[in-house]
Amino acid sequence: MSCPACFQGTIHDGTPSGTETELHGLPTYIACPPSDVAIKGIIVIVPDAVGWKFTNTRCLADEMAKEGNFKVYLPEFMNGTHISCKTICVVPDILEWSRARGIHVPLRNVRQNVARYRVLGNDSETVIWDPLPHPPSVHDNSCCISTRPGTLKKTDDNISEETRYYALRVMFHVVPFLYRCRFSVTWPRVHDFVTAVRTKEARDLPLGAAGYCWGGKHVVNLASLPHPDDPQKLLIDAAFIAHPGNLDLPGEIERIKAPFSMAIGDDDYVVGMKEVEKIKALLAKKEDLKSDAVVYPGAKHGFAVRGNPGDEKDKRRGEEAREQAVRWFQRWFGRVERE
Predict the structure, then answer these.
(1) Which has the closest alpha carbon to 335: 206, 201, 204, 200?
(2) By three-state DSSP, how is residue 29 classified?
(3) For the segment 6-64, what is each residue's pLDDT rounded down to a tens digit?
(4) pTM (2 d.p.)
(5) C-alpha atoms less than 13 angstroms from C-alpha of 202 in its C-beta half-sphere
């Protein structure tokens, strides 16, 4: 489920080395292995809420292509309604400001409360667009608003820092994303794209799907579908997800048929350890399913994409999650090649 933990993290340095094109009707970033090696298979990444242009995800696609000799597709499934990178910078400041004042910003069930999103103050209910301080990590004034609650108007650059409405700016990005990128809207795009790749580019190659955060639910559903031309085969040959959100348990896990691997942290606000143990138990019951669930101690939601590279432990957890994905696809792509 989308929550503040889905909209924060670290923006990495790095320059993506792939190319952009249009593929099956969608703008798509393509990462390729070195030109002198044979392609071992194709991976479709269904990204987190920051979308297909996020530097972190593009560099992740580049690394997976290079390490596994895969061709990696990162399509635009969100039709332009992704979460802004500025939101990633602002959310931690809002949460820190809230905690310092004894205000609880709920990390669960935000989606159900979008129409009346509120935070509870010490002695009164305060709407999310009440004044917040200027976050030190952001210096963009395009959405600054200042006045009494209920009479919003633009301000000049000299306005007091205490009256900047950064929470409103966050909601300006988050609310459209939650509505326009809900599963019922985006699932047909994901399904149709992967089906087209299966019947064309991956007709004679193994095909996998990797889902991160928002994309995890989509990949879980892809892992349950048959091949469009042969019901005895599967749509994808292997699936990997990291810190997924909004899974419907037990149904979506029970329907998985493709080899399935998951990376999750034990400090994940979205999928707690009770849910993780439930998922592991559901996978264990499926004796004919090859599965793997790795819990990373100390890892928070988003660690596989938005972890802090300046923190050695956080950096290593992200690297290990990438290596887990590459090994999983290599393992099952190799079996497809031998069949």
Answers:
(1) 206
(2) strand
(3) 445 567 689 999 999 999 999 999 999 998 899 999 999 999 999 999 999 999 999 99
(4) 0.79
(5) 29
